[in-house]
Specification:
Radius of gyration: 19 Å
Largest sheet: 7 strands, antiparallel
Helix content: under 10%
Strand order of the largest sheet: 1-22-19-24-17-14-13
Shape: globular
Structural class: mainly beta
Number of helices: 2
């Protein structure tokens, strides 16, 4: 039996039906009705694309130039390749194990397409895109871009044979690759079948578990299977995860931002007036050009 410090309650969130982002990303929105609410702060939205097969083509597949302001987007690729270009002059391609961390902040235009090489050969695309809010004081920061390649993301071997890829935050004594504006832990975990892993979590942070492939439970008797996301309710200091099979799991953990959220489309601000101002800035070309 678990000790009281590791007992937790999981709230499994139902997936929102499949929809397309552009013509290259068939996604499920995993936070569902909780998206853009204080319940999941500092996180805003989580889209899971694929796994989806694409036939070879010479056409560009994806989503063309569009704006963002007031938050950050984190794209994690598991299969396939994604090419990014933005109005600040950043350009890059990420593949399996790579992460793109884009800070929209005061405003940016960008586009996301399948890489030309991936589109030409075809194959399976699988990726996650997480939106993370920024506090009021940082919504006016300059936009930025972090290309976090797999080779530069710290990996911590687990005693049971698995591994933890530390995208952001801290795992045990290892710091992650990304710079964050608020405290966020983002861990890409690979767990071995029939093993248990203890995650140490800051008390009071919002914690979510996304199982991409495999099967786990976290101590309350509920099983999380493929493409399933659960919020961990009232987390204390640690969470015991038991993997029934080899599992790929993304753990999200962050300090809530206790500020109003006003969101519409690609803009996330604090008030409706700020949203209106963001729309004007975009229409007036103040977010740059591609």
């Amino acid at each position: 039996m678990e000790t009281p410090s590791t007992q937790k309650s999981l709230h499994i969130l139902p997936r929102v039906g499949l929809h397309w982002v552009g013509d290259g990303f068939p996604v499920h929105s995993l936070f569902g009705a909780a998206s853009f609410t204080p319940t999941i702060s500092p996180f805003l939205m989580l889209d899971y694309a694929g796994p989806a097969p694409f036939t070879p083509t010479t056409a560009k597949r994806g989503v063309g130039a569009h704006p963002h302001k007031g938050f950050e987007t984190i794209t994690i690729v598991y299969q396939g390749e994604v090419e990014h270009r933005d109005s600040v002059g950043n350009h890059g391609t990420i593949g399996p194990g790579d992460v793109q961390w884009m800070t929209a902040a005061s405003g940016i235009l960008h586009e996301e397409f399948h890489s030309r090489a991936f589109a030409k050969r075809g194959g399976v695309l699988e990726m996650v895109q997480l939106w993370v809010n920024l506090p009021t004081k940082d919504k006016k920061a300059p936009p930025g871009y972090q290309s976090l390649l797999k080779a530069n993301i710290p990996v911590v071997p687990l005693e049971n044979g698995g591994s933890a890829h530390i995208i952001a935050g801290k795992f045990e004594q290892t710091s992650g690759a990304a710079h964050t504006f608020t405290p966020i832990n983002l861990w890409d975990l690979r767990l071995k079948a029939s093993t248990s892993t203890l995650l140490n979590l800051p008390a009071g942070y919002t914690t979510a578990l996304l199982v991409l492939h495999g099967s786990v439970d976290a101590g309350d008797g509920q099983t999380l299977g493929d493409a399933t996301l659960a919020l961990v309710e009232s987390p204390n200091e640690c969470l015991n995860i038991h993997a029934h099979s080899d599992t790929t799991l993304l753990a999200l953990n962050g300090a809530p931002i206790k500020e109003p959220i006003a969101a519409q489309g690609p803009f996330v601000m604090n008030t409706d007036e700020e949203l209106y101002q963001a729309m004007l800035e975009f229409q007036n070309g103040q977010m740059g050009q591609l």
